[in-house]
């Protein structure tokens, strides 16, 4: 393989204890996690409890906990993986995963990212309840359903040609779920309690923008494909605070962005919990054609643990050497 792409997952991939087996065993992962918690602020102890599954079992799926933990785990995994293989990757993240990717690309420091996601968590705790619905349909298929709920229901993400996510406040989301199933679409609730990537969170995004100074931002040091703009991040975009903060209220075009990285001899590695982005990457033409490969180091479930991580890193080395 001649190229490495790290995929940073977002909301829905989290689970209690995700990657905790690496903490204390992988020095680079541990150092990155500790640095994040130190910068996060006074709510760091509660966040750590949720990560290890010692708090309310439902916390891990609430945005104020899931979002910062996904960012931390994705970044810490990436730091360790990149050091292990010694290859500079291209990076792409889904939703909050794009913030983790931006940290690795040095758009902002881990300390700045931790403080910003802490503020995002605080504002999320004040937002109206809602959620997201994964639907096995195309954007064109769902558009009339979305249009029947003007200004309330939005296409929050386009993850693959037949895989979209709808976002809405409650109780509308329950109604959307019923209507989607009535139309024969396979669908399920995403593990989230907030209507991410919809205009409902627009006011929150504006508040975040006021809290991110442009002086804290820099041009990317790695190729970063944005799943919001669906293009490679430019220096001008990277240095614009609203580019990062408005993302929470806009549609994620992950599939369109990912296809820009669809080239032969590429190793796609999911840097974070679960296998959701790995499953999407397996739909790319280069992967289906056998010239590229996908590796999932932290599959869902705590049983996988250290052995899966070690095996995945060794597989990365072998793949990149050939």
Can you offer a commentary on this structure?
By secondary structure, this protein is an alpha/beta fold. It contains 14 helices and ten strands. It has helices at residues 27-40, 44-51, 63-85, 96-104, 110-124, 139-147, 172-182, 202-210, 235-238, 241-245, 254-259, 276-281, 285-288, 305-321; strands at residues 3-8, 90-93, 130-135, 154-160, 163-169, 187-189, 224-226, 231-232, 266-270, 293-295. A six-stranded mixed sheet has the order 8-7-2-1-9-10. Strand 4 (154-160) and strand 5 form a beta hairpin. Helix 1 runs antiparallel to helix 3, helix 1 crosses helix 5 and helix 3 packs parallel to helix 4 (96-104). The N and C termini lie close together (6 Å).
Write a concise synopsis of the structure shown.
43% of the residues lie in helices and 14% in strands. By secondary structure, it is of the alpha/beta class.
What is the strand and helix layout of this fold?
Elements: E1 3-8, H1 27-40, H2 44-51, H3 63-85, E2 90-93, H4 96-104, H5 110-124, E3 130-135, H6 139-147, E4 154-160, E5 163-169, H7 172-182, E6 187-189, H8 202-210, E7 224-226, E8 231-232, H9 235-238, H10 241-245, H11 254-259, E9 266-270, H12 276-281, H13 285-288, E10 293-295, H14 305-321
Parallel strand pairs: 1-2, 1-9, 2-7, 9-10
Antiparallel strand pairs: 3-5, 3-6, 4-5, 7-8
Helix pairs in contact: 1-2, 1-3, 1-5, 3-4, 3-5
Q: Spans with pLDDT under 50 lasting ≥5 residues?
A: none
User: DSSP strand (E) fraction?
Assistant: 5-15%
The total beta strand count reads 10
Query: Could you state the order of secondary-structure elements as H and E?
Result: EHHHEHHEHEEHEHEEHHHEHHEH
- Provide the residue-averaged pLDDT: 94
Helix content: 40-55%
Shape: globular
Major sheet: 6 strands, mixed
Determine the number of helices (DSSP H or I, runs of at least 4 residues). 14
**How big is the Rg?**
18 Å
Oligomeric grouping of the chains: single chain
* Widest sheet, order of strands: 8-7-2-1-9-10
What is the CA-CA span between the terminal residues? 6 Å
Structural class: alpha/beta
């Amino acid at each position: 393989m001649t190229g490495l792409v790290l995929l940073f997952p977002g909301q829905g991939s989290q689970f209690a204890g995700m990657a905790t087996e690496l903490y204390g065993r992988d020095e680079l992962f541990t150092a990155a996690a500790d640095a994040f918690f130190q910068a996060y602020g006074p709510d760091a102890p509660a966040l750590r409890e949720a990560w290890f599954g010692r708090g309310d079992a439902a916390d891990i799926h609430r945005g104020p906990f899931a979002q910062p933990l996904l960012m931390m785990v994705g970044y810490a995994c990436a730091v360790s993986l990149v050091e292990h293989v010694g290859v500079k990757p291209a990076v792409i993240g889904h939703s909050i995963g794009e913030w983790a990717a931006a940290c690795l690309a040095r758009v902002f420091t881990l300390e700045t990212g931790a403080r910003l996601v802490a503020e995002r968590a605080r504002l999320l705790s004040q937002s109206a309840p809602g959620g997201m619905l994964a639907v096995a349909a195309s954007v064109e298929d769902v558009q009339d359903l979305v249009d029947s709920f003007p200004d309330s229901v939005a296409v929050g993400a386009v993850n693959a040609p037949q895989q979209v996510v709808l976002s809405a406040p409650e109780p509308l989301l329950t109604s959307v779920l019923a209507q989607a199933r009535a139309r024969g679409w396979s669908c399920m609730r995403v593990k989230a309690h907030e209507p991410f990537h919809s205009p409902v969170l627009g006011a929150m995004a504006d508040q975040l923008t006021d809290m991110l100074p442009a002086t804290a931002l820099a041009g990317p040091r790695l190729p970063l494909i944005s799943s919001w703009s669906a293009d490679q991040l430019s220096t001008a975009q990277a240095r614009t605070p609203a580019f990062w903060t408005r993302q929470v209220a806009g549609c994620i075009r992950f599939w369109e962005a990912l296809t820009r990285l669809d080239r032969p001899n590429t190793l796609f590695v999911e840097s974070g919990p679960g296998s959701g982005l790995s499953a999407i990457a397996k739909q790319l033409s280069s992967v289906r054609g056998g010239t590229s490969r996908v590796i999932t180091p932290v599959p869902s479930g705590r049983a996988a643990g250290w052995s899966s991580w070690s095996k995945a890193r060794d597989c990365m080395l072998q793949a990149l050497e050939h």
